[in-house]
Amino acid sequence: MARVSVWLLILLAALSLPALAAVEVRQFDDPVLEQRYRDLTATLRCPKCENQSIGDSDSPIAGDMRERVYQQLQQGRSDKEILDFMVDRFGDYVLYNPRLEGRTFLLWGLPAALVVLGIVLVILLVRARRHVAARGLSETERARLDSLVNRQGAHHDTVYHDPAHHDPVHHERNE
Amino acid sequence: MRRRLLLLLPLLGFLVLGGFLYRGLSMDPSYRDSAMVARDFPAFDLATLADPERRVDASLLEGEVTLVNVWGEWCPTCKQEMPQLLELAERGVRLVGVDYKDTRAKGRDFLEEFGDPFEINIFDPEGSLGFDLGVYGAPETFLVDAEGVIRYHHTGYIAPEDVSRVIMPEVEKWRE
């Protein structure tokens, strides 16, 4: 049984090879450059496929874009220059991480504004509650509280301070 | 009374959110603004499809409003689009083709089979001009004015009804 599973696993791995082969392997002499390549291809969105980065997509245009990223990295261009190059042609659409500018201000600002609003609301609510707690009781409230406390107290007396009937130890000694 | 109104706040928030999401339902997720409109047609230096010796550049597009259509033999929609392009040529629109990521032989066969409304075809086997145009598939069509500035970008199929409804009005608009 175990042997069969191993063979099945090998078969599955072999079947998945063509999918991997769609995205080419690139050689980098410099590990920093390789990391930048990975980051850039992960943050650039494939224009054809809507929900994939160019690093994940096997569409032809994603391949072309990876090729350009690779070439430009080898030419010593900065990340910003490469991203500008892509946005210049394909628009802001290709940025998974939109830039902070006039048009995207709402996009970036709204979540922050909501968080600030939430914090302000919590502070206001806590303050209002504290105010209520600190306020003294009114006459009627005081009277009602007293009557409640007294009734409770009287009840307790009958339960715990009547040894003749309720304390078994005392009762035994009496016998 | 003010407290009562505050209770309506979550409902208001829900309605705003609902409005956003409802609008999102009818939006086309594949639609995006073109980055190319109102920009100069990108510089290029490529051979023509008909004659490998003849090289053309962006000055080809100056002097007259031109419709630049990016096509390829491998693109089935381009075949369906061809009758509309032929009609546009018949209506007096100047058309220039870009044979995108194709081989010469296949490109020529395509025009022979489906018709050739193009004044000239730029041969772009590597897709380099296509890349500079921000093309990510075919067909795509660009309207270029007499100064060589891109004025309209049509991504995808030009349907028969688009000829009179969309393309011709754009052409007329930029001819003036």
Automatic annotation (TrEMBL), chain A:
InterPro entries: C-type_cytochrome_biogenesis, CcmH/CycL/Ccl2/NrfF_N, CcmH/CycL/NrfF/Ccl2_sf. Gene3D superfamilies: Cytochrome C biogenesis protein. The chain crosses the membrane at residues 105-126. The keyword Iron applies. Keywords: Cytochrome c-type biogenesis, Heme, Iron, Membrane, Metal-binding, Signal, Transmembrane, Transmembrane helix. GO terms for cellular component: plasma membrane. GO terms for biological process: cytochrome complex assembly. The keyword Translocase does not apply. Residues 10-148 form the CcmH/CycL/Ccl2/NrfF N-terminal domain. Residues 1-21 form the signal peptide. GO terms for molecular function: metal ion binding. Belongs to the CcmH/CycL/Ccl2/NrfF family. Possible subunit of a heme lyase. This is Cytochrome c-type biogenesis protein. It comes from Halomonas eurihalina.
From TrEMBL, chain B:
One of its GO terms (cellular component) is plasma membrane. SUPFAM superfamilies: Thioredoxin-like. It holds the Pfam family Redoxin. Coiled coil: none annotated. It is a single-pass membrane protein. Residues 35-172 form the Thioredoxin domain. One of its GO terms (molecular function) is disulfide oxidoreductase activity. Keywords: Cytochrome c-type biogenesis, Disulfide bond, Redox-active center. Its main location: membrane. InterPro entries: Periplasmic_diS_OxRdtase_DsbE, Redoxin, Thioredoxin-like_sf, Thioredoxin_CS, Thioredoxin_domain, Thioredoxin_ResA/DsbE_sf. One of its GO terms (biological process) is cytochrome complex assembly. The keyword Disulfide bond applies. It is found in: Cell inner membrane. The keyword Disulfide bond applies. Belongs to the thioredoxin family. DsbE subfamily. This is DsbE family thiol:disulfide interchange protein. It comes from Halomonas eurihalina.
